[in-house]
Amino acid sequence: MNKEIALIRGDGIGPDVVEEAVKVLNSVAKKYNHVFFYKEVIAGGRAIDMFNNPLPKEQLELCLNADSVLLGAVGGPKWDNLEQNLRPEKALLGLRGGMKVFANLRPAHMFPQLKSASPLKDEIIASGIDILIVRELTGGIYFGEKGMSPDGNSAWDTEMYSKKEIERILKVGFEAAEKRCKKVTVVDKANILSSSRLWRTVAENIHREYPEIELNFLYVDNAAMQLVRNPSQFDVIATSNMFGDILSDEASQLTGSIGLLASASLGDGSGPGLYEPIHGSAPDIAGKNIANPLAAILSAALMLRYDFKLEDEALAIENAVNSVLDEGWRTLDIAGNVEKTRALGKLVGTKEMGDRVVSALLNN
Ligand code: IPM
Ligand code: MN
Fold it and tell me: From residue 269, how far is each of 123, 274, 289, 309 by CA, in Å?
């Protein structure tokens, strides 16, 4: 298979982790006889420095014309004081909206080897954590009308969802649940928000097409609490853009480290998907060979699965990551007792972690 992948290395640790994901993709290509071509796309802080625009149109076009897009991370303190339209985050929203990737899948899976890195008590995580957060990504308050009064004394953002937007994201949620544990939890704030009440009505209607799936509803405040009280009750969580943003950070920490969580952002299937670790650009550790590349590597696995339909190859990456963790290799964020890990000779940097995954993949 020949595929062209757009790489947005981005800012901070973005370039560090994308480099390792590319190494792993190249070893998949070698092992399974595929050819992956790469093209570089500049977005985020780097694009502000170079073009005074976080996402120039030509850069978005490069993504739209690729078979898939891999992104590291964007942003950093250097650009924090710019006005809203010139911030690196604008590139992310521009990519998501421009590529029409409305469905953001964020699997929060706890590797059993890393149980001790979870802040939750053993008895709470005894039955594991395996949650798929299905976050709506191109609507809601992120994209709704916003503004400020001329005197600067008030400002607003709008949460608005159409039936069509809710339907298509919930379908993704139900279909994902069919392949998992057959349970969908819709998270909302229907006791307060009318947009949430529309989510509930639409969910109940669509549920008729998926009678074998159990559907329940939770208010977002309760869901945030239930995630730490009893995370194994969740299978698929389907929710709005902002609630999904918040709950996925929470869920990632429960699995041990935000450095492990991959994500896939998908549209209607007619264009490329956008794959990125959910962590940020962590400028304080950028370029130091410390960052955990596993979330980026696992995002590449999702790319193979969803955009290229290469399930065996995706599994090969996931199994390689699993065996590297089995062998005890740890980056700083998942080391637990750092001194002990170092003494055992198992503390590795970004590049070594990538190399370990490559050799596990090629030797299995
Ligand atoms: C994420 C990030 C982004 C978001 C920010 C950087 C705009 O937190 O991908 O979760 O809020 O969606
Ligand atoms: Mn976030």
Answer: 41, 12, 36, 12
